[in-house]
Amino acid sequence: MSELFRIDNLHARPVSDDVDTTDDILKGLNLTVNAGEIHAIMGPNGCGKSTLASTLLASPEYEVTEGDMFLKGEN
């Protein structure tokens, strides 16, 4: 199968004047989705599901501090 989407070692933190932003919320996330696959992101409240979605959509609320994301092989 060909790789459709990949996240390598993603780290992200909130960007805020009111919060200490020295700590990453996402810490080393890896994910590969091949063509034809369906994945679900599940977990308890506060584990980073919404942060991941916001980070992938380039929300200004989060800063990527490390890692790469690829869509169809393009970074």
Write a structural description.
This protein has 75 residues and is mainly beta. The protein has one helix and three strands. It has a three-stranded antiparallel beta sheet with strand order 2-1-3.
Q: Unreliable stretches, pLDDT < 50, 5 or more residues?
A: none
Strand order of the largest sheet: 2-1-3
Helix fraction, binned, reads 10-25%
Main beta sheet strand tally, sense and closure: 3 strands, antiparallel
Average pLDDT confidence is 92
N-to-C series of helices and strands: EEHE
- Say how many strands there are: 3
Binned strand content: 35-45%
Distance between the termini: 19 Å
Give the structural class: mainly beta
Radius of gyration: 13 Å
User: Count of helical segments?
Assistant: 1
Query: What gross morphology would you assign?
Result: globular
Quick gist of this model?
This protein has 75 residues and is mostly beta strands. The chain has one helix at 49-56; strands spanning 3-14, 26-34, 62-71.
Descriptors:
75 residues; 41% strand; mainly beta; 11% helix; 1 helix; single chain; globular
Topology at a glance:
Layout: E1 3-14, E2 26-34, H1 49-56, E3 62-71
Antiparallel strand pairs: 1-2, 1-3
